[in-house]
């Protein structure tokens, strides 16, 4: 398959999940679900949504000199990917927007500006949110190559999987959303 043909078959994966195949034993991406925020000829960018780190939202807010008010929602912070882990991203429901907000699709918005954290510290943030540090990035054609190597499954995004399931349940649930039982998939990569 030519690179251009491969690319044309995979355009438009924005607003989809990338689900790591069991054979993907990469130490970082094994058993991950990544929400693709962008995918075009220049590459792809996404946030891993099922790897909480040992840091809570309140701890993160205090690290950036914001004191959460009593009753401000608490939640884990996620490792969004290996690129720029010092940068924060808030993937949230789209009922509100802030300075650095970008509406993505499926009722989801990505915000990278501090004002969303200020709102969250005051208990006035988005109804549903996932806070991540860092992101996953692919250069031109890189993701298409990994898809051709059967490293990933692709599924339409489901906000319920992002916000309502425990992080440990998201990988299998994302696969089930396209009729795949990960327990029945071999850990050995192969081609038909």
From TrEMBL:
Q: Which SUPFAM superfamilies match?
A: VC0467-like
Sequence intervals crossing the membrane: none
Taxonomy, superkingdom: Bacteria
GO cellular component labels: cytosol
Tell me which Pfam families the record gives. Answer: DUF179 (PF02622)
Q: What protein family does this chain belong to? A: Belongs to the UPF0301 (AlgH) family.
- Name listed for the protein in its UniProt record: UPF0301 protein TVNIR_0306
Recorded source organism is Thioalkalivibrio nitratireducens (strain DSM 14787 / UNIQEM 213 / ALEN2)
């Amino acid at each position: 398959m030519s690179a251009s043909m491969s690319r044309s078959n995979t355009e438009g994966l924005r607003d989809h999940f990338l689900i790591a195949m069991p054979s993907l034993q990469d130490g970082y991406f094994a058993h991950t679900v990544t929400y693709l925020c962008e995918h075009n000829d220049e590459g792809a960018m996404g946030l891993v949504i099922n790897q909480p780190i040992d840091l809570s939202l309140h701890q993160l807010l205090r690290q950036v000199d914001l004191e959460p008010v009593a009753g401000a929602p608490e939640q884990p912070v996620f490792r969004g990917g290996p690129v720029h882990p010092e940068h924060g991203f808030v993937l949230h429901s789209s009922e509100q927007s802030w300075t650095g907000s970008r509406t993505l699709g499926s009722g989801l918005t990505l915000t990278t500006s501090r004002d969303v954290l200020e709102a969250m510290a005051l208990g006035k943030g988005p109804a549903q949110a996932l806070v991540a540090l860092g992101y996953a990035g692919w250069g031109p054609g890189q993701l298409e190559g990994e898809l051709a190597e059967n490293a990933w499954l692709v599924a339409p995004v489901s906000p319920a999987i992002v916000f309502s399931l425990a992080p440990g349940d998201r990988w299998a649930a994302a696969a089930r959303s396209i009729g795949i039982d990960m327990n029945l998939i071999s850990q050995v990569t192969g081609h038909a």
